[in-house]
Automatic annotation (TrEMBL), chain A:
Coiled coil: none annotated. The keyword Lipid metabolism does not apply. It holds the Pfam family CheW. It comes from Pelovirga terrestris. PANTHER family: CHEMOTAXIS SENSOR HISTIDINE KINASE-RELATED, CHEMOTAXIS SIGNAL TRANSDUCTION SYSTEM ADAPTOR PROTEIN CHEW. This is Chemotaxis protein CheW. It comes from the Bacteria. GO terms for biological process: chemotaxis; signal transduction. It is found in: Cytoplasm. Keywords: Chemotaxis, Cytoplasm. Its main location: cytoplasm.
From TrEMBL, chain B:
It comes from the Bacteria. InterPro entries: Bact_Chemotaxis_CheA (IPR051315), CheA-like_dim (IPR004105), CheA-like_homodim_sf (IPR037006), CheW-like_dom_sf (IPR036061), CheW-lke_dom (IPR002545), HATPase_C_sf (IPR036890), HATPase_dom (IPR003594), His_kinase_dom (IPR005467). Residues 5-108, 161-265 form the HPt domain. This is Chemotaxis protein CheA. It comes from Pelovirga terrestris. The modification Phosphohistidine is found at H51, H208. GO terms for molecular function: ATP binding; phosphorelay sensor kinase activity. Residues 136-158 are annotated as: Disordered. GO terms for biological process: chemotaxis. It holds the Pfam family HATPase_c. It catalyses: ATP + protein L-histidine = ADP + protein N-phospho-L-histidine.
Length: 168, 762
């Protein structure tokens, strides 16, 4: 299942441009800039860590490295769903912090040129919009492109860790 | 120094900066020692350090640094020759020179130039020169009972009966060994490319330093031989022709002899070199006798020769003939003799063979990052080994040979791990010696007399630990000096010696390193601490129920200070909590014992290594956790009658005559245990500092050494958990932090209580 997507080579820059790893989450298509993705692994046993917000599922052992795992469903406050054999963990590296993202299903690496990306719509109701980098159009489908920096490091995230941790 | 620096030059400069910093680190304590008792040995050591710094800085054209080092050296020289009496101001001045050198080195490190230090250099060297000129201008000084005549500087040798300590000897051997190696490399390179003038300069410099060191230590044989080598090299450097085309072989042989002598010294023997004279002769033969000398022997006027040498554009012989000072016969004779002696030398130089003498000990500087990687890798290997040996696929199989091989591998891995750990260990002496300066400065500022004793300097601690305890140690020492020790008058009044004693010691004890700071000052004042704690609301009641230890621990509370007035050294109440926090970071503990009027002892207990702990694996439901074995006192399966439930719902377990609160691990982890009944599980009695409690788990699975891994920075600190480890089956297991377990449990319980009240259910 493990598939190493980290590309090392002189043409690294070119080949990764405009490429997004897309995945399914509660019926929607999401995309992450491929340059952040290290690898995709199947779901494995996660060690829970006490006093964490619900979307931090715990930690896993990635070949000797201990990395935290975030459930993206829980992160977006979507209804929980049992993990099955399609559930994947996308390991991303943002500013040298490695985090695993649990998603329903990984679909493909899609090429979405900049001209096909529209800025995120501003709907004040949903504060989660701030994690959206843009809306990608591919044929008839719409792919929500995520801003991984905000996904991982937004202030709200820190606040959530604080408050959720206390409530638990 | 030109603006364009190539990599080599940068490397040389960086090496110079590192070396000089090391030197200053050694210098500072020595200078302060000098202020206390000016024995010639320390004096010479300091002199030598300034001298080396001057030399290296001069070579690299850091003029300001050279200037200051030179001035300091001159002043020291006067002191050494008893021309100036050493005054406390001088010590301060030397310290200032050190500080300047540090700043200058920082500047050099950053910009490869010390130009920015010009003003500072002016001021410090002016002060030094003032001190040098001091006695001359203050001739009326009544202290000067004997007039300083030029003859007064006794003709006796500059280094009178210096005693060479083991430590000096060792560092000499090591330093000189490095010099020889550099010289050897240089020689070999030069042998390949004789036209490279720079490498000769390098070799010359190394040999020159070596000679200086030997001369300083009085190793006459080594000095003679290296001196002769220096002569030869000097000849080469100035472009003269040698008797043989390539003197490398002979020089290498001499280097080997020097190494041999050095090895003898390392073994505590004399610097004896066999057949020294013949080797000196051989070196001498390398140098073609100067034509002028030979001509003089032929009866040519010396003045004429020297003037001829001045205008030595054409062959000397030719010029002399033109001047009529020499007859063609004389010159022909001289030339013939030159040729002869050159042939002779060639003949002598040929049969030389080298026998390699290995060096005794070698050090290399390694980038810390590489070392960390190595240790991480070995950590991985320990885990991989566990995964392999305890592989579930092997379960139930009778594998005798595999078992043997596995055992062997475990042993090797363990050794490898220990070795890697020991690489990171460095002696605390560097840290301790830095404190000498600090104590000196504070004692001067606070007007106290302090005798600082360093014990166990050779004790080795992990480098990271040393970095972490540096600040705490500074704080604690400041406190001891500023609050602990009384001013001399008060000490006298209390019947103590005028000079206070501060002992700084390090030793291995109970699988930990104990760093102790002990003073014979006034000790902690129980009443004052309590008063302060009550006024700050840190404790409830009058504190009469608190133990000595608990009271002493109060001083670690943030913002706590009993000092009547805030001095510029300490007393603002920041510090002790930082001390505690830093120690907790490395899983260390602090013990304070104090007797009013007699002194305070602060003991820092630090684990030997940060990377591995002995842990007990416990299970709650389907989850396993690691409890550090060090905190475990005992474990038992409780009987119903040993458990008492208070009206508040707190559970207490009786262990012989004591009652300890029960902490349920399943509540902390939010897990479902096998059974909620205490008597169906195991209680582990844990100790943290003074508090003891029982941890309720389902089962103890066994003991194992675990490699500590941090939880990701992304998660941050988790109360109750200090990190995690990877188990044999590849799973991750949390390592419990006994210290915060109690706190996290307490806060949880409060929240749970609050929730229960608001929701009305349990």
């Amino acid at each position: 299942m493990a598939e190493d997507l980290s590309l090392n080579g002189p043409d690294n820059e070119d080949t990764q441009k405009d490429k997004y790893l897309t995945f399914h989450l509660a019926g929607e298509n999401y995309g992450i800039d491929i340059c952040y993705v290290i690898e995709i692994i199947g779901i494995q046993s996660i060690t829970e860590v006490p006093d964490m917000p619900a979307f931090i599922r715990g930690v896993i052992n990635l070949r000797g490295k201990v990395i935290p795992v975030m459930d993206v469903r829980a992160r977006f406050k979507l209804p929980a769903r049992d993990y099955d054999d399609r559930t994947c963990i996308i390991v991303i590296n943002v500013d040298s912090t490695e985090v695993g993202l649990v998603v329903d299903e990984v679909s493909e690496v899609a090429d979405i040129p900049e001209s096909h990306v529209e800025p995120a719509p501003r709907t004040s109701k949903n504060s989660d919009n701030s994690y959206i980098q843009g809306m990608g159009k591919m044929n008839n489908r719409v792919i929500i492109l995520l801003d991984v920096h905000k996904l991982l490091f937004s202030n709200e995230m820190q606040r959530l860790i604080q408050s959720d941790g206390d409530e638990e | 120094m030109g603006m364009q620096l190539d990599d080599d030059q940068i490397e040389i400069i960086q090496e110079f900066v590192t070396e000089s910093r090391d030197m200053i680190e050694q210098l500072e304590p020595a200078i302060i020692e000098l202020g206390q008792n000016s024995d010639p040995e320390t004096m010479n050591a300091i002199f030598r350090l300034f001298h080396s710094m001057k030399g290296s800085a001069g070579f690299l054209e850091f003029t300001h640094l050279t200037r200051v080092a030179h001035a300091a050296e001159s002043l020291l020289d006067l002191v050494r020759n008893n021309e100036i009496e050493l005054l406390p101001e001088h010590v301060t001045l030397f310290c200032a020179a050190c500080d300047f050198a540090k700043d200058a080195l920082d500047a050099v490190d950053a910009s490869f130039s010390d130009d920015t230090m010009s003003a500072a250099a002016d001021s410090i060297s002016a002060q030094l020169h003032l001190a040098i000129d001091g006695p001359a201008t203050s001739a009326a000084d009544p202290q000067e009972d004997h007039p300083t005549t030029p003859v007064a500087s006794e003709p006796e040798p500059v280094f009178p009966e210096m005693e060479i300590t083991e430590e000096m000897r060792n560092s000499f051997v090591q330093e000189s060994g490095e010099l020889l190696q550099h010289a050897e490399q240089g020689l070999l390179a030069w042998g390949e490319h004789p036209e490279d003038a720079d490498s000769i300069g390098d070799i010359f410099r190394h040999i020159h330093s070596f000679k200086g060191n030997c001369g300083f230590f009085g190793f006459a044989h080594l000095e003679k031989l290296s001196h002769q080598m220096e002569n030869v090299l000097d000849r080469v450097k100035s472009g003269s022709r040698l008797a043989v085309d390539n003197p490398t072989e002979q020089l290498l042989v001499s280097l080997d002899l020097l190494q041999q002598g050095l090895n003898n010294i390392a073994e505590g023997k004399e610097d004896f070199i066999e057949d020294l004279d013949s080797h000196l002769e051989a070196l001498k033969n390398l140098m073609t006798p100067l034509l002028g000398d030979l001509l003089a022997e032929e009866g040519v006027d010396k003045l004429a020769i020297s003037s001829a040498v001045e205008i030595q554009k054409k062959p000397v012989g030719e010029i002399l003939m033109q001047q009529g000072s020499a007859t063609p016969e004389q010159i022909a004779n001289a030339l013939k003799r030159q040729q002869e002696s050159s042939d002779e030398a060639k003949a002598k130089a040929k049969p030389v063979t080298r026998s390699k003498v290995p060096a005794k000990r070698q050090d290399i500087r390694v980038e810390l990052g590489k070392l960390d990687n190595l240790i991480n890798l070995i950590g991985e290997m320990v885990i991989a080994e566990n995964m392999l040996i305890h592989n579930p696929d092997l379960k139930g199989l009778e594998l005798e040979n595999f078992g043997k091989a596995a055992q062997h591998m475990s042993k090797l891995v363990r050794e490898l791990q220990e070795m890697a750990m020991s690489i990171r260990m460095i002696p605390v002496s560097g840290l301790f010696r830095r404190m000498i300066r600090l104590v000196h400065d504070i004692s001067v500022k606070a007007g106290k007399k302090v005798d600082l004793q360093l014990i166990g300097e050779e004790t080795e601690i992990d480098k990271t630990v040393i970095e972490t305890i540096t600040d705490p140690l500074v704080h604690l020492l400041r406190n001891s000096l500023d609050h602990g020790l009384e001013p001399p008058a008060e000490r006298m009044a209390n019947g103590k010696s005028e000079k206070g004693t501060v002992k700084l010691s390090a030793r291995h004890e109970e699988g930990e390193v104990w760093v102790t700071i002990e003073d014979d000052g006034r000790g902690l004042n129980r009443e004052k601490i309590l008063e302060k704690a009550i006024s700050k609301g840190l404790i409830e009641g009058d504190g009469s129920d608190l133990t000595e230890k608990q009271i002493n621990n109060l001083i670690f509370a943030p913002g706590f200070s009993t000092a009547a007035q805030v001095t510029d050294i300490s007393g603002r109440g920041v510090g002790m909590d930082v001390v505690k926090r830093n120690l907790e970071k490395i899983k260390g503990k602090i013990d304070i014992t104090s007797k009013l009027g007699q002194g305070t002892r602060i003991n820092l207990r630090i684990p030997l290594t940060l990377a591995i702990i002995d842990g007990m694996m416990v299970r709650v439901g389907t989850t396993t956790c690691i409890v550090p074995t060090l905190s475990i006192l005992e474990a038992y399966r409780p009987e119903m009658e040993q458990i008492t439930v208070t009206p508040d719902g707190d559970e207490l377990a009786r262990v012989r005559e004591h009652f300890f609160p029960v902490v349920r691990l399943h509540q902390i982890l939010n897990k479902r245990p096998d059974s909620e009944q205490l008597c169906n599980g195991i209680l582990i009695v844990l100790e943290y500092q003074d508090s003891r409690f029982c941890l309720f788990v389902d089962e103890i699975l066994g003991q194992q050494q675990t490699v500590i891994k941090g939880l990701s920075d992304f998660i941050g600190t988790v109360p109750g958990v200090s990190g995690c480890t990877i188990l044999g089956d590849g799973g991750v297991s949390l390592i419990l932090d006994v210290g915060t377990l109690v706190e996290s449990f307490d806060s949880k319980k409060e929240l749970a209580d609050a929730a229960a009240i608001s929701k009305g259910d349990e």
